[in-house]
């Protein structure tokens, strides 16, 4: 089956407008729809700054802000939706075929009583990818009481990888902070490195990367350039 690169966009990258523009340009310069990619994101850092400006300093647990009250919940929900729109706008500006998908759309994402994130009804999502569209999926779910909440984008990646494996060979992708993978030997990307060597210096969230590494699929550290700018995707595989 065809490889699908499920790209986890971490908070530092989401807060970097120049990165989003650069990512969109790499997509535009690559062959249309190649390699097949799916982008997943949460709220980013902007919502934290907004909350702090209002005198609130919530902590993150498993990648999710511990909000207090309906006002903070609504603010986070709005931030996630706006982040999705910003990513889609950056891609659209470069004439990349894309679609923004909130996790609550068509009941794509759900959450179980134990807090685990699930994905279902993905046939339409798989069809979009096969049509060379780049979906951008937000980490929003609707709870049993109808409330929309953010969940950890790393858990969304895991949920989507599980169900999309029926149509693709998924590979989880995390992006480094530079235009080349952080793990290099004599100027060339190292084929693999231990997950235990992964650190914040690699440009992605360590806890999220280790969470996603629990999936039974490959996980790679790469960059937008190495993922999209060559004859084929390149990067460093993270292994035990």
Task: Let me know the CATH homologous superfamily.
Answer: Acetylglutamate kinase-like
The whole-number mean of residue pLDDT values reads 90
Shape: globular
Contiguous low-pLDDT stretches (5 residues minimum) are none
Architecture, according to CATH?
3-Layer(aba) Sandwich
How many domain units?
1
Classify the secondary structure makeup into a structural class: alpha/beta
Characterize the largest beta sheet: strand count, sense, and whether it forms a barrel: 8 strands, mixed
CATH class wording: Alpha Beta
Q: Kindly provide the radius of gyration, computed on alpha-carbon positions and rounded to a whole number of angstroms.
A: 17 Å
Count every beta strand, where a strand is a DSSP E run of 2 or more residues. 16
Neighbour order of strands in the largest sheet: 5-8-2-1-11-15-16-14
What is the string of SSEs from the N terminus onward? Answer: EHHEHEEHEEEHEEEHEEEEHEHE
Q: Helical percent range?
A: 25-40%
**CATH topology description:** Carbamate kinase
Q: What amount of the residues lies in strands? A: 15-25%
């Amino acid at each position: 089956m065809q490889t699908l690169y499920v790209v986890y966009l971490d908070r530092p990258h989401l807060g970097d407008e120049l990165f989003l523009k650069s990512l969109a340009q790499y997509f535009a310069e690559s062959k249309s729809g190649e390699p097949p990619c799916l982008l997943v994101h949460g709220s980013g850092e902007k919502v934290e700054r907004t909350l702090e400006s209002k005198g609130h300093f919530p902590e993150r647990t498993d990648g999710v802000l511990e909000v207090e009250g309906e006002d903070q919940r609504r603010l986070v929900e709005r931030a996630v939706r706006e982040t999705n729109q910003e990513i889609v706008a950056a891609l659209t500006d470069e004439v990349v075929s894309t679609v923004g998908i909130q996790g609550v759309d068509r009941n794509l994402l759900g959450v179980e009583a134990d807090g685990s994130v699930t994905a279902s009804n993905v046939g339409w999502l798989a069809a979009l990818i096969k049509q060379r569209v780049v979906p951008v999926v937000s980490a929003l779910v609707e709870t049993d009481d109808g409330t929309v909440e953010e969940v950890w984008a790393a858990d969304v990646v895991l949920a989507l990888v599980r169900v999309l494996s029926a149509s693709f060979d998924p590979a989880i992708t995390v992006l480094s902070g530079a235009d080349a993978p952080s793990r290099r030997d004599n100027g060339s990307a190292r084929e693999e490195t231990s997950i235990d060597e992964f650190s914040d210096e690699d440009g992605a969230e360590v806890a999220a990367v280790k969470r996603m590494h629990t999936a039974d699929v490959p996980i790679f550290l790469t960059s937008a350039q190495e993922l999209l700018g060559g004859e084929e995707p390149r990067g460093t595989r993270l292994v035990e």
